[in-house]
Amino acid sequence: MGSELIHRGFSVPPAEDVGLFSPKPQKNFARLPGPLRYLLVEQRLFFLLVGMALASLFFALASPSSSAASVVTRLPVDLALRSSLPAANGVGYWSTIERRSVGGRMPLGLKRKGLRVVVTGGAGFVGSHLVDRLIARGDSVIVVDNFFTGRKDNVIHHLGNPNFELIRHDVVEPLLLEVDQIYHLACPASPVHYKFNPTNVVGTLNMLGLAKRVGARFLLTSTSEVYGDPLQHPQSETYWGNVNPIGVRSCYDEGKRTAETLTMDYYRGAQVEVRIARIFNTYGPRMCIDDGRVVSNFVAQALRKEPLTVYGDGKQTRSFQYVSDLVEGLMKLMEGEHVGPFNLGNPGEFTMLELAKVVQDTIDSNAKIEFRPNTADDPHKRKPDITRAKELLGWEPKVSLREGLPLMVTDFRKRIFGDQMTTASAVTDN
Fold this sequence. Notes:
- Helix 5 (125-137) crosses helix 10 (323-335), helix 7 (200-214) runs parallel beside helix 8 and helix 9 (294-303) runs parallel beside helix 11.
- Helix 5 (125-137) links the parallel strand 1 and strand 2 (140-145).
- The chain starts with 33 loop residues before the first helix and ends with a helix.
- It is α/β, with parallel strands linked by helices.
- The protein is built from 13 helices and 13 strands.
- It has a domain at 113-286 and 319-348 and 383-399: 3-Layer(aba) Sandwich (Rossmann fold).
- The strands form four sheets. The chain has a seven-stranded parallel beta sheet, sandwiched between helices. A two-stranded parallel sheet has the order 7-10.
- Residues 64-106 and 422-430 have low confidence and may be disordered.
């Protein structure tokens, strides 16, 4: 039986059907190169063109992502241009950075995805209140604290929460974590503590390094002490301060000034997203009872029936904000688009004698006042100008001193007399 060589796409018809039809003559592509001849003969060119069209359509629809990526690529250039522009009406001083995120704003109706946030000093007075707010918002929070001034009791109510972690660690040693935001609060803030253990600079440097490595946004909690004994009143953020660089308080004052310098250098040089808050006197529950700060001193002394110690003539002024107002300001700053620095404080101004009178009215009207020699480098006046915070953050304090102080007194009374009150209650019941 004879055999026929059958080519793909063409077969020889049976002999009896030859007269009925003649096969379609093939086009002559013999002169074309092999790959091109293959595409034309086997009709692959059509499918190739269809595939290219679909790919072009896909990349056209995906163009928003590529444009967002190009914005991020241009970030160093934008920052360099901004820093080179002259200041106009103070705007140049207020460096701002737009939040760059692929995909833009979250559509309405979608639940906000929780962030992974680290709070250094999160077991302390302010830090623990901040942790409460972040946990309530749905974020995963990692508290890093060496418990020098922080207390486990401040965060113990979060133990067992899957969104809460507690790490005993001193930030003067490097730490590796994967986080979205860093609230850097770790630093002794009262004279009793910071003179013993000044740790501003090294800890800040380590946390800035962490922010650079993982691309996290970094918030530095600086202080009104950067203004020293101010010659400008009230103090605005453009004021450079009047600080004694070798005084007994300089380890804290200059340490915070250096921390601000490092933060801005990482912003300008390494494009780290940073925020700077300058915190004025803050009070509230969970303050250290014997930390040497004036509000805690007066409250503890009045509760213990001791004289209220006023240093100097008592005419030096301070401004006092309740801790919940501060936490609100820190969160607005972190989530906002402005670097700062921003003053976060209550512009209500009190002399030390006026503060003592408020404490007497709240706790014990018979409490006596005892005058003592003033301490070195004690600022004469301290009052924040919070105009920028109002305009750019939409923030201002809401709790007055007479409203917030009783809440602090309740907490101090429980912690000072807790065991005694429990014992007295048990004796009464028996």
